[in-house]
Specification:
Blueprint: H1 2-9, H2 14-18, E1 25-28, E2 33-36, E3 44-49, H3 60-78, E4 82-87, H4 94-103, H5 107-124, H6 140-152, E5 156-158, E6 164-166, E7 206-211, E8 226-228, H7 230-242, E9 246-252, H8 256-271, E10 276-282, E11 285-287, E12 290-291, H9 302-308, H10 311-319, E13 327-328, H11 331-357, H12 365-386, H13 391-408, H14 415-431, H15 444-459, H16 463-475, E14 478-483, E15 486-491
Parallel strand pairs: 3-4, 3-9, 9-10, 11-13
Antiparallel strand pairs: 1-2, 5-6, 6-7, 7-8, 11-12, 14-15
Helix pairs in contact: 1-12, 3-10, 4-5, 6-7, 6-8, 7-8, 10-11, 11-13, 11-14, 12-13, 12-14, 13-14, 15-16
Length: 492
């Protein structure tokens, strides 16, 4: 709010937009207030976001942090920062192991499959590739090293059965992120129950390493053949790829406690330095006002949504609310997002039509004054994003730009004017990850409908229509195959 007022009174120039100092504010879970963003290293952002556990297709709740933090990264880049963005895949976990047992395959088969599927979903949501997506199973050496350091400096201990625990009472800052009093703490709900619970000195202590059970993947270690606890992987990967101290650590708000609290305890006890300067957490994506989650069974996968909508619509829907506000998923909101996105795409298309007409007459005074207005709206977008990434207000600014464009274009509009507006609108859409080029890609549901129409045509002996549908689909990159089990299709 403060920033918005300041910037409206004194609209930023392009030079100020590029001047990264003094303007960006981030709500920090650690201090529970908005703070000015000051990077550790001038012009650079080191950012770590906890990624998914890969035992299934991701659901749209998991997509919220992916889309939001991708937008944060894009905005920092827009402001001229060099962003080092690291996000892990948790590829060793009870749920992965259980699924592997169910299917009678190695756990790596499950994790590899769902990492690949997750990457496809991310691409379709226009989430940029991270600088690095480390896998827990490839970082075991680093985890053993950090655990050894923690044992050596008295922050961890080995129980009789070879389980290693972090000694919570040894770390003064425990509870500073979740704002919990250590004496009131219960063991975290995501803590994995392990053999050796009895070997704990204190019920708050959490697992760093645990001995294997039959049939589980395991690694040798000085303490037992076993595997790491969940929390240690993020401390280690963050240290390895970003250094002991990072600017931003992000994830969904369910990770504040115990996961992020434990990460702080591990990282700070190992390095003796403060770990992350800004802790950012997105609120939940809900359904009927309850958190969407696999365990409650009230979820849609990103793949489910892709059958009905272009995933750009899902992205737009996610960004239509502030990331710290809960967002309730509904068909109505998705339809509204689809229509809003459509308005933006049509607005951009209209500008491109004017561009194509190549009207090289000099830009008019009215157009010049509209471009000035457009710059003020761009500043409004920047002010909204500077104010703790208020994507909802940023989207409003884009709508105002589209409205300005739609109401001002006519058959005499100059190419210079269209270029001027496009040069403002398109980079802002790109910050939000909105692709302004209309996709001709065909949706799964549309393909199924056309296959059904072709089947009907063949039943009616209308082979010309059946062939036409097949050829039209082929032109759009869809290959049909008639098999005994029915028609199968694939994207060529
Ligand atoms: P998980 O695979 O459960 O560790 O989750 C991966 C990421 O998705 C974490 O940052 C979670 O906080 C986040 N997440 C899971 N469910 C939701 C939800 N319903 N709404 C928002 N974020 C979620
Ligand atoms: Zn993590």
């Amino acid at each position: 709010m403060y920033l918005q007022i300041q910037r409206i009174a004194l609209p930023a120039t392009d030079a100020q937009v590029k001047d990264k100092r003094n303007f960006m504010k981030i709500f920090n879970t650690l201090s529970k207030r908005k703070e000015e963003f000051v990077p550790i290293e001038e012009g650079k952002v080191r950012m770590y976001v906890c990624g998914p556990t890969v035992y299934n297709l991701i659901h749209i709740g998991n997509a919220r942090p992916m889309i939001f933090f991708d937008t944060v990264r894009r905005y920092f880049e827009y402001r001229g920062y060099d962003v080092n963005y690291v996000s892990n895949f948790t590829d060793v976990d009870d749920k992965i192991i259980n699924k592997a047992i169910e299917e009678g395959v190695d756990a790596s088969v499950i994790s590899t499959r769902y990492i690949n599927e997750c990457k496809k979903d991310m691409e379709a949501m226009n989430v940029l590739s991270a600088t690095k997506n480390p896998l827990a199973t490839e970082e075991i050496g680093g985890m053993e090293e950090m655990i050894s350091t923690l044992i050596d400096n008295g922050h961890a201990y080995v129980a009789k059965d070879g389980t290693v625990y972090f000694r919570v009472k040894s770390f003064d800052g425990y509870g500073k992120l979740s704002h919990k009093n250590i004496d009131e703490l219960q063991s975290g709900f995501r803590e994995i129950k392990v053999t050796g619970e009895d070997g704990k000195e204190d019920s708050n202590d959490f697992v760093l390493w645990k001995p294997k059970k039959d049939g589980e993947p395991y690694w040798d270690s000085p303490w037992s053949k076993g595997r790491p606890g969940w929390h240690i992987e993020c401390s280690v990967m963050s240290k390895k790829y970003l250094g002991d101290q990072i600017d931003i650590h992000g994830g969904g708000e369910d990770l504040i406690f115990p996961h992020h609290e434990n990460e702080i305890a591990q990282s700070e006890s190992a390095s003796g330095k403060s770990f992350a300067n800004y802790w950012m957490h997105n609120a939940f994506l809900n359904i009927d006002n309850k958190k969407m989650s696999k365990s409650l069974g009230n979820f849609f996968t990103v793949r489910d949504i892709s059958e009905k909508y272009d995933l750009q619509v899902l992205r737009f829907f996610m960004l239509s609310a502030h990331y710290r506000s809960p967002l309730n998923f509904s068909a109505e909101l998705m339809e509204a997002s689809k229509n809003s996105l459509e308005r933006i795409l049509t607005g951009v298309e209209n500008l491109k039509d004017v561009q194509k007409k190549n009207n090289s007459s000099p830009i008019t005074d009215a157009e010049l004054s509209n471009l000035e207005m457009a710059k003020v709206l761009k500043d409004k977008f920047v002010a909204a994003m500077d104010d703790d990434f208020n994507t909802a207000d940023a989207i409003s600014a884009i709508f105002e730009l589209i409205k300005l464009s739609n109401t001002s274009l006519n058959e005499n509009s100059t190419t210079e004017y269209a270029n001027g507006l496009l040069n403002i609108i398109e980079p802002l859409c790109d910050v939000l990850g909105i692709i302004t080029e209309r996709k001709t890609e065909i949706l799964d549901s549309e393909i199924e409908d056309l296959i059904e129409q072709r089947t009907q045509a063949r039943k009616n002996k209308d082979f010309a229509l059946a062939d036409k549908i097949r050829n039209d689909l082929l032109d759009r990159g869809i290959v049909l195959e008639d098999t005994r089990e029915g028609v199968k299709w694939k994207r060529s």
